[in-house]
Write a structure and sequence with these properties.
Elements: E1 2-10, E2 13-19, H1 30-38, E3 48-53, E4 60-66, E5 71-72, H2 76-88, E6 96-101, E7 104-113, E8 116-123, E9 150-154, E10 157-165, E11 169-174, H3 183-191, E12 201-209, E13 212-219, E14 223-224, H4 229-241, E15 250-255, E16 258-264, E17 270-275, E18 277-285
Parallel strand pairs: 2-3, 4-6, 11-12, 13-15
Antiparallel strand pairs: 1-2, 1-18, 3-4, 4-5, 6-7, 7-8, 8-17, 9-10, 10-11, 12-13, 13-14, 15-16, 16-17
């Protein structure tokens, strides 16, 4: 089967995008297709697969599959790229519109340059802070409603965790120097920790000042990636909860792939602004169906 695709990235967080308005794929094929296209040696190479589809509730819908074939609830960089793709292909005609993800419907606003989308602002909604809804368990049975700088032992690492959901679960650890963050060891250990029954995205944050943070991520189902939009949002929410940055102010999040501008507004909504870039388009020759 020849499958038309577009490769896009948001700050290096790259996915293979399939136009579900034109291409009809069977549900049972999607996990294996995601694994195959993501393979850098035998496929195209990416952090996963994203489908852009018609929606009954919004202007456009997206589904996200990690490189291991698991389906994700949300993806901030994916939302921006789907917004760009939908506008550039003419599926939406206005610069503000709605995008449906598995976690819910969000508002998108595109910024144009020579008629094409350059930057996208997404209203990511309100963060989920309740432990049971993240979800996160404890090993002792004693629980606080919110998880803010909670002692968290991983092997021989004495860490302190702040947990936030942005439609998908995140746990944030603060480090003195982002270059020394134990992402390779702590990341995979925490993402599969029994305290997170649905797994978790693991963020490491170095606070630069009250308007800038450095950020690295181990993503559930994908490993180390260049950027994670929902993770950047969770990191700013966490930094407000820990009194590192003020609520209501825009914070620059420095990721491996570039910068995102995140604001946790006084009304509770988290706004994310950043670029979306088209890399290539073509046909993927999939021989498994």
């Amino acid at each position: 089967m020849n499958i038309p695709f577009t490769k896009m990235h948001g700050l290096g967080n790259n996915y293979i995008y399939i136009d579900g308005f034109k291409v009809d794929l069977k549900e049972e094929h999607l996990p294996n297709l995601a694994k195959d296209v993501s393979n850098v040696f035998t496929g195209i190479g990416s952090d996963g697969l994203i489908l852009m589809l018609p929606s009954d509730f919004a202007d456009v819908r997206m589904r996200i599959f990690n490189k291991d074939g698991s389906e994700a609830m949300n993806c901030g960089n994916g939302l921006r790229c789907v917004a760009k793709l939908a506008y550039d292909l003419g599926y939406v005609k206005t610069q503000t519109f709605k995008v449906e993800a598995k976690s819910g419907v969000v508002d998108a606003e595109v910024e144009l340059e020579q008629g094409l989308v350059k930057n996208v602002t997404i209203d990511m909604g309100q963060p989920i802070l309740e432990r049971s809804q993240i979800p996160m368990k404890t090993l002792t049975g004693a629980e606080e409603d919110h998880v803010i700088q909670e002692p968290f032992l991983v092997g021989e690492e004495d860490l302190y965790a702040t947990a936030v959901s942005m439609g998908n679960p995140h746990v944030v650890f603060y480090v003195d120097d982002i270059a020394d963050a134990p992402i390779q060891t702590v990341g995979p250990a925490v993402t599969d920790d029994q305290r997170f029954p649905e797994g978790v995205n693991v963020e490491f944050v170095e606070v630069v000042n009250d308007s800038e943070i450095n950020f690295r991520v181990w993503e559930r189902g994908s490993g180390i990636t260049q950027a994670c939009g929902t993770g950047a949002c969770a990191a700013v929410v966490s930094s407000v909860l820990n009194d590192y940055v003020p609520k209501g102010d825009e914070v620059t999040v420095h990721l491996d792939g570039g910068d995102l501008m995140i604001t946790w507004k006084e009304d509770g909504h988290v706004m994310m602004k950043g670029p979306a870039v088209t890399v290539a388009s073509g046909e993927y020759y999939w021989q498994k169906i």
